[in-house]
Amino acid sequence: MAHLRSTTLLLAAISMLAGCVMFERPPAALVCDPALVGRWIPLAGSPQDKVPLGRDDYADVDATCHVRLRDTERRDEPGFDALGFEIDGERYIALGFDELEGLFATGKTAPPTPKGIPADAVTLLKYRIRDDTLQIAMLDTVAIMQRVQQGTLKARETDASTYLFEGEPEQLRELLRRHPDLFDAFDGSDKTLRMRRAKDGASS
Question: What pLDDT digit, counting tens, does each position of 71-122 carry?
Fold first, then answer.
């Protein structure tokens, strides 16, 4: 059976594949979205099937938005806090270094903050919930880096593969308002994860 670790790696791909895009600080105060609370299971036929998911694997989100990833083939339960914010009806989850370590669930002390990156820096996921279906879109890192290199988008290159959007929270919020295309599009993107809310706590 496939591991839920595959889901973890796909979520964390924003910091591992084709470079990394971070924000200097959270663009807004981070809170728990009650709409995320519950049990979420893979949506049959959704694009993330390209990264195999075990049929009995799922994610539990508690009332504080702490996520536990349940894998029938693992004894431990990787966990992280899925806190976020909303801007003009668009909802985001902010993942700092502690949260990314929780996703990887290595059981080791988190590595030092990369050189040139503030300790409070976060990367973002954009999500929406409709008809009990959760869609999660990741930052389009390749497109962002190309735009930065072309001079059409401003970010600081901290090393060969890491870009940092800098500014005060209000400036970062304005960036998100002006550039919704920083993220993969919902519906039809093979990078968009989709899960459905389980009924009555069922995992299948």
Answer: 766 666 778 999 999 999 999 999 998 888 776 655 555 555 667 789 999 9
* Tally of CB atoms within 10 A around 34: 10
List the 156-159 sheet strands across, edge first: 20-23, 162-165, 156-159
What 8-state DSSP symbol labels residue 45?
A: T
Phi, psi of 14 (to 5 degrees): -60, -25
Pairing verdict, β 162-165 and 20-23: parallel
What's the pLDDT band for 45 if we cut at 50, 70, 90?
low
B/e letters for 117-131, b = 16+ CB within 10 Å, e = fewer, are: beeebbbbbbbebee
Q: Is the pTM of this model over 0.85?
A: no
* Segment 147-156 long-range contacts (CB within 8 Å, at least 24 positions apart): 153/179, 155/21, 156/116
**C-alpha triplet 112, 118, 62: angle, nearest 5°:** 80
Q: Where are the alpha helices (DSSP H) in the chain?
A: 5-11, 97-104, 141-150, 169-178
In one-letter notation, the amino acid at residue 162 is T
